[in-house]
Every structure is written in structure tokens, then in C-alpha cells.
Amino acid sequence: MSDTDPFGGGDDLIDESVQEVEHSNFEGLKRTFKPWHKPRKQWIREFQWCKHAEDLISEVGEKCESLSYLSLPGNDMLDIRTLHKVCEANEIMLRFLGFNAADEHETQENDRNISHSEVHRLPFVDRQKSQIEWDRIEAIANDRTTAYKKLCSHAPYDIVNIDLCGSIGTTAVYEGRNIFEAVASLIDVQKTTRTEPWLLFLTTRSGKRSVKHSVLRQFIQFIENNCCEHDDFRDALGEKTLLDSEALCDLKCALGTTSDEKFMTLFALGFSKWMLSQANNGHPSWAVNVLDIFAYNVYAEQKDMLSFAFKFTQQRTAAGDASNLTRRTPQINGGFLEEKDQAIQIVEKYSEKIDIDQVIQESPELEQQLIEKSARLLKEARYCDESYKAWVAKGCPS
Predict the structure, then answer these.
(1) Contacts of 243 (CB under 8 A, 6+ apart)
(2) Residue 367 near residue 39, CB atoms below 8 Å
(3) How would residue 18 be classed by pLDDT, with cut points 50, 70 and 90?
């Protein structure tokens, strides 16, 4: 295993080739960069999104003739460009549905439209079954909207990527709906249209500045309930996160003075528990496995951004005969996980979360690789790669 590649073989995840881009219909290369252009975002793209996409394609095997993908691609559509490389390497087609809020600024609208045209011309994109919906993701929570109808018509999805700039914990509403309702609606659609495993990537701010205390109190309640019902969950919580289950009630009343690290821990565990509750409801039940959690800074003084990778797997059971008139008894397929076991796995995985900023800081060689790959990706989206490298060299100023 390479010192600069914590997962091994990372250089093979993203092909080195770059899609040539015509710039003639755009007024100059872009030289203004955003927080999601920092090298650490390339880590997320490569070691989370691409790695797990590759693993899913391998698991599904010959049945994987295409990759169906839902995301919030933004004007640059960097995630689509990135996943296309995975599909190209595996010689399967990429079908995508993206949700982008309409932008009234003419320059940004032109930029967005060019990106849309570019990704549609990529050789392994299924043009007939790929679309950008100019609406916010919250709109899918209302089953009377066009956004919801698009969600259903493109379903099911192999991979869903909800890459937020803000926090799911703000509960901000759009036309009366919030992100929680959108995610719940999405999971419901997946449960009714899919039987194979699927992935959900979700990036969200998790700090005090971004999460409503009312949301975190509900998350703490999820954790409290598990502690009361299962001694082994309570023991794992104390061992892996140093959270005292008996102090959870007090924490709900003193979130303003809770340490930043403990606040983020409560958010991560509570949010993952909420995700688990959405998957476990109904029949058949779906198990949720946290594949990994990456943390990094938005505000310099404390980690406050988390990037989750969840894997959903259907848990199949055959119904028994409650009347006892037949010999049929409930049959559970191998690998069935109780809610308690899934909850403990969440705690264990959170205790293994990776601080991306620290890993990059400790490996200049890795940082340089990420800079070079990010520069090539941004060049595809009509950014000046030399200006990008100069921006990074200055510390990525806002």
C-alpha cells in the first residue's frame, strides 16, 4: 500500500485522460475558485465517490449494464464528469438526473448551459436518459411536482449524491419542504423500485453555526432510545465515542456549551440513526451500512463538514403463517441485520472517521497528486489550470 494512497491502487480509480473541451463559445477561462475546488474535495471524489462506485459495479457484476445516478451537480457538473471516468473505465453507460436551482445571472446561466452540453457529449453518457432538472432537490418531497415525477421516471438509482454546501440540519424550507423530507421521499422511491444494493453519498455541515438545536435534540433522542433498549449499543457508544449515555439528557439542555467535537459526534450519530429509521421502516426492510465518514474544515478552527457514504441493502424475508394452519415459518435470508447491530456499526464507523485536512497536511506528495488531478478536472470545465495551481499555492483564499 502506498504511503500517499490510504486505500491502495487509488491512481487507477480515475483515468488520467482528460476530455478535451472546446472553449470557443465561452468568454475566456474562469479564474475564480470556490471552496469545493480545494484539493481535499478531490479526495472525496476519488477515495469516496469513485472507490465505492467501482466496488458497487464489481458487486453487481454482469447485471450492471449502466450506472444510474442522481445528484446536485452545480454549474460545473464536476461530479458527473468524475463518475463518467469510472463508467468509461468499466465500459458501461452513465445515466443521470441532476437537480440544479435555476440561476437568473446571465453569465452563470451561460456557464451552466455549456457544462450541460459538455457532459451530454461525453462518450459514455446515455444522452436519451440523462437530464438536468432546473429545480431544487427539496421539490421531490411533494408528489405533485414535476421534480417528483422526474425522480420517479428515472428511478431506480445505483448512486445518489446529495452534496450540500450547507447543512441538512438547518431545516430550511423551499416551497414548504426541507432536505429531510426530500431524502425520505427519495428513499421511499428507491424502496419501491429497486432490489439491488445502492449507495447514498451525503455531504453536510455539522457544526454549531449550521445545525438547529431543535434538530440535534431530536438526534440525541434517537441515541438515547438505543441506549435504553440495548446495553451493547450503550457500551459501544461509551467505548468508541466517550459519550456518557446518562449525560445525553443533560446535553439536550446545554447544546450551546457543548464542545464542537461532541456536537459533531451527536450530529453524525443522530443523523445516521435517522437514515437507519427511514430504511428500516416498511416491508421489505433495508439495512444501512456506513462505508466511511470523512471530516474537514469549513471554518478554520474546527472540523464542521462531514461526508458520509451509506450502502443500502434489501433484507428479504419470507412470511410465515400466523394461524399455524400450515408449517410455514418466517424465513430470513442470510446476512439479516437487526436495527441494533446496524446502530452499533454506525458508532464503530464514526470512531474511524478520517480527518482529510490532517491526512493531506501530513503527505505533501498526496497533496500534489490531488492538486494535479483537480486542476485537470477543472480544466475540463473551462477553468485555467495554472490560475488554479496559483490559487492553491496561496492557501486557497476566499
Answers:
(1) 223, 237, 262, 265, 266
(2) yes
(3) very low
Q: Tell me the residue type at 362.
A: E
Q: Tell me how far CA of residue 356 lies from CA of 39, 44, 78, 298, 374, in angstroms.
A: 10, 9, 20, 12, 15
Q: What is the 3-state secondary structure (H, E, C) of the chain?
A: CCCCCCCCCHHHCCCCCCCCCCCCCCCCCECCCCHHHCHHHHHHHHHHHHHHHHHHHHHHHHHCCEEEEEECCCCCCHHHHHHHHHHHHHCCEEEEEEECCCCCCHHHHHHHHHHHHHHHCCCCECHHHCEEECCCHHHHHCCCCHHHHHHHHHCCCCEEEEECCCCHHHCCCECCECHHHHHHHHHHHHHHHCCCCEEEEEEEECCCCCCCHHHHHHHHHHHHHHHHHCHHHHHHHHHHHCCCHHHHHHHHCCHHHCCHHHHHHHHHHHHHHHHHHHHHCCCCEEEEEEEEEEEEECCCCCEEEEEEEEEEEEECEECCCCCCCCCCCCEECCCCCCHHHHHHHHHHHHHCCEEHHHHHHCCHHHHHHHHHHHHHHHHHCCECHHHHHHHHHCCCCC
What pLDDT score was predicted for residue 322? 59
DSSP-derived pairing of the beta strands 354-355 and 331-332? unpaired
Q: Is the pLDDT of residue 194 over 50?
A: yes
Cell of 272: 445516521
Q: Count the neighbouring beta carbons within 10 Å of the beta carbon of residue 265.
A: 23
> 28-212+261-318+325-393 has which fold?
Rossmann fold (3.40.50)
In this prediction, residue 256 carries a pLDDT of 79
Residue ranges of domains in the chain? 28-212+261-318+325-393
Predicted TM-score (pTM) of this structure: 0.89
What is the grid cell recorded at 225? 432510545
